From TrEMBL, chain A:
It is found in: Cell membrane. This is Inner membrane ABC transporter permease protein YdcV. GO terms for cellular component: plasma membrane. The chain crosses the membrane at residues 12-31, 67-88, 100-124, 130-154, 174-194, 232-253. It comes from Shimia marina. SUPFAM superfamilies: MetI-like (SSF161098). Pfam families: BPD_transp_1.
Automatic annotation (TrEMBL), chain B:
PANTHER family: PUTRESCINE TRANSPORT ATP-BINDING PROTEIN POTG (PTHR42781:SF5), SPERMIDINE/PUTRESCINE IMPORT ATP-BINDING PROTEIN POTA (PTHR42781). The keyword Cell membrane applies. The complex is composed of two ATP-binding proteins (PotA), two transmembrane proteins (PotB and PotC) and a solute-binding protein (PotD). The keyword Acetylation does not apply. This is Spermidine/putrescine import ATP-binding protein PotA. The lineage of its organism: Bacteria, Pseudomonadati, Pseudomonadota, Alphaproteobacteria, Rhodobacterales. Residues 18-248 form the ABC transporter domain. It catalyses: ATP + H2O + polyamine-[polyamine-binding protein]Side 1 = ADP + phosphate + polyamineSide 2 + [polyamine-binding protein]Side 1. Belongs to the ABC transporter superfamily. Spermidine/putrescine importer (TC 3.A.1.11.1) family. It comes from Shimia marina.
Amino acid sequence: MRRMSWFNITSLTLGFAFLYLPMLILIIFSFNESKLVTVWAGFSTKWYGELLSNGAFLDAAWVTLKVAFLSSTMATVLGTMAAIVMVRSGRFAGRTLFSGMIYAPMVMPEVITGLSLLLLFISLNVDRGVMTIVLAHTTFSMCYVSVVVSSRLVSFDQSLEEAALDLGCSPFQAFRLVTLPIIAPAVISGWLLAFTLSLDDLVIASFTAGPSATTLPMKIWSSVRLGVSPEINALSTLMILIVTVGVVGASLINKRNVVRQRREEAAAAKLA
Amino acid sequence: MALDVFAPWNDPDAKPLIQFKNVSKRFGDFTAIDDLTVDIFEREFFALLGPSGCGKTTMMRMLAGFETPTEGNILLAGQDIAPVPPNKRAVNMMFQSYALFPHLSIWDNIAFGLKRDKMPKDQIAARVEEMLRLTRMEKFASRKPHQVSGGQRQRVALARSLAKAPKLLLLDEPLGALDKKLRQDTQFELMDIQEKTGTTFVIVTHDQEEAMTVASRVAVMDHGQIVQVATPDVIYEAPNSTYVADFIGEVNLMKGKADPQGDSLQMHWAEGQPAVVGSPLAGASKGQDVHYAIRPEKVSISAEKPVDAANAVQGKVLDIAYLGNISTYHVELAGGQIIKAQAANNRRISRRAFTWEDQVWLSWTATAGVFLER
């Protein structure tokens, strides 16, 4: 392997420092003994203990997980359906418009999305609570699912589905028994992505939440306005941990599949 | 010809399994199939042969149910199959890419269609075992498709499409992905399996050798039409057009004016060259434009003018293609026409009689070639 030049090492260090130093500091101070956030007074895990006995935080965490689970599941169903239509239906009038409209929420400012959803809910006279946050999160995360799933579907050999039909499947059976199992890794990645997006959303949740439902990011934001406490640091560290495990897990699953497939194909080639 | 030879197409009472009746298929402005009518009989091994884009794959996809004809009817055992969706047809297809389900084992791939039919479990197992035996894949039943070689995948695809015992099996370029040696072995295997199972096979291929080897009849296609349907030997020996003659194997084509002479036909084709003599062409009148097709292996090459040959022309050797077992001599005649002649290399190459620039005589009998109208 080639040795890296000093220039490259410096660039790499600076880049990573820029990305991860803030989080590193947050993680370090979550283990701080002192109540003062910026003064180090020795190692301790007491803030994690206090966090667990704080009912308000636990409630918010529960709401967040519920919202993330429901919205990512709905987004996965809708996003996969949208992806199938966009990839399979070929050319039709207004196709570009439709695909643009599916992906537009990705670049739409969150404030706009949140505000418009708020206005919709008010005009429909819907009580704002967990369900409204779920709906809001579904709308903005389904486009991410759709992107992930359609990139897999593009390389999907359509004759597999035709073979299923040919062997006696109804179109729905063909999807359930052949297409879905094959694109499952992409669907799962999409679900994980939607889950993490929902987990850390503050803006849209703030617009669409009611007094009965507060998500964790909202709770953190409101308590930070009264001053940063080490408890928040501990909580944030836990969230970083969850998100990291999720993302690393998803990419490991993907990578392992690829590696295994290559190895088996190589073995088959040798056999031939 | 003996009476027990399999030739239902010559029997006026035989009922065809598949009938294409004036079928056309258009994709927008493009006509893939143009007013096509053909009958395919039970137990036949029928080959659709043609260059890419000639409509052979579209014909097959219409039989499978993935396309519907724009005009005309397709009958399977006398019934119009247009309204029948692919999953309800007694037709199975072996895909060019094999389309094996990568997430299922080879056993489950073969069982896939049987399970859809709600067949009892023990019968499914028995049928799968039978298919595995037929294709000699017993040892690999628990592997996934990407864990076996290309030739084995091809056999699994065949087993899967045969498992439901279809009335008709469609094979879309089934051997395209295999190397030449394996392809030849597999061709014989296919014929063997076709005979054992008694299934009607329709194969799509662009490889003329493959079509000639496996098929009971070959349909040569061009631009959405069938140019000729016949047994491989008729296609080769008596093509009905220069297109067919040229598409199948190597051929020398000459063009000239017809001159009927009683029970033979002469063709004047060049100033100062003797007329080509051959069997008559029905309906050819004097002075009409005709083509003459003769296969290189039917042309003899010699140093001296043969005494009693019906056709003999002189020329010089321009090129020699040495193919091991045979050599093809490209001989240029006085008018510039090049005739290919093939000779078996029954002596070692160092003892070869002719070399470049040699003056040679080419000769062939009166029945060796055919006159063609177009």
